[in-house]
Amino acid sequence: MKAWIGLAALACVLTACSGGAAADPPERESAPAAPPAPEANVVPAPPVNEVTSGPPKEKEPGPPDGPPAEHASTGPSTASGADATATGSVYNGPRNPASAVVGSSAKPPKEAETGDRKALSWYYMKKPKGQVPGFPGDTKAYTDSMKALWVGTGKKVYLTIDTGGNLGDIETLIKSLKDNDAKANFFIAGYNVRKNPDYVRRLVKDGHLVANHTMTHTDMNVQTDEQVRKEIEDYEKLYQEVTGEEIQPFFRFPYGRYNMHLLKLVSDMGYTSVFWSTAMRDWEPRKNGAEDPYNDIMNNLHDGNIILMHQGSPENIEALDRIVKDIKKAGYTFALLNDIEPPK
Ligand SMILES: [Zn+2]
Q1: Is the Cβ–Cβ distance between 213 and 160 less than 8 Å?
Q2: Could you read off the pLDDT of 185-204 as tens digits, one per residue?
Q3: CA of 81 to the centre of ligand 1 (A)
Q4: How many Å lie between the centroid of ligand 1 and the Cα of residue 280?
Q5: From ligand 1's centre to the CA of 10, what distance in Å?
Q6: What's the pLDDT band for 293 if we cut at 50, 70, 90?
Q7: How far is the CA of 222 from the centre of ligand 1 (A)?
Q8: What does each C-alpha distance from 163 to 70, 90, 299 come to in angstroms?
Q9: CA of 25 to the centre of ligand 1 (A)
Q10: H runs (alpha helix) in 180-300
Q11: Which domains are present in the chain?
């Protein structure tokens, strides 16, 4: 139990979440940060670590993606000035100069913490079974020029499989979807597409949607605008090279880390950013094996559910067949993002 709380607290520090509060408090964005109780209903984005990490370090212009200790400086507890009490959606970005981006338009850390470049980290607030979760107050500030999705409507589930880290057991994954005639949405980092282009071709052939998740799976907050554009455009080219088709206009920020400026930038490039309404602590081994992803998903199942599942978690893949079967039994169909209807 102690270890669990420790991990939860650490994950919270990493993702700057606050926890333990009642669902959907209106002032969450200004509430003080605190480690969550084990039953906390705030579900943060994954930390930058092994399971969700990007390609080998030498190729990465962004933050380190090693063990969590490297990220201890990114949480609110070490923030200075106004951010010292920030919570929830605030991610202060790497402070280690060694990980800073070198470039003509790279922003100094101070500037990156304010205004429309203030780093944000996606999260949601779990509600009782069957109910749509609460979402960050930041979403209320999204404009029409910041196209984004985090939940749909109706008896549809959008399974999004994130492959920013290990590819894991591809065969079981593909089979579990095929056997159940379920379609999924894949966000596969470009370096993984390069590693296994056949995998991507098989997914497209099976009718799944594969969308843009950047080339290097780096926190976009520490990249310059030029770098972000290049990450996205290089992915488009690679996708076309590999599949012979144009990519569908959906984008996921690695680690759910973004800012308002980037949300607009990505939107201006024709993309809709896709967040989620279910995520799991699947960047670490699951205490109860495949039971954990099964319960995490089934206990938060709701209309228009956008589920984030990391492909690199063996427990997820082991549980997938049962998850898909039981979601269908509950009356939902597995849909692609291109037919989503967000709530009005
Ligand atoms: Zn990812």
Answers
A1: no
A2: 999 999 999 999 999 999 99
A3: 30
A4: 13
A5: 19
A6: very high
A7: 16
A8: 22, 24, 24
A9: 28
A10: 190-195, 197-205, 225-243, 260-268, 291-298
A11: 2-125 (no CATH), 137-339 (3.20.20.370)
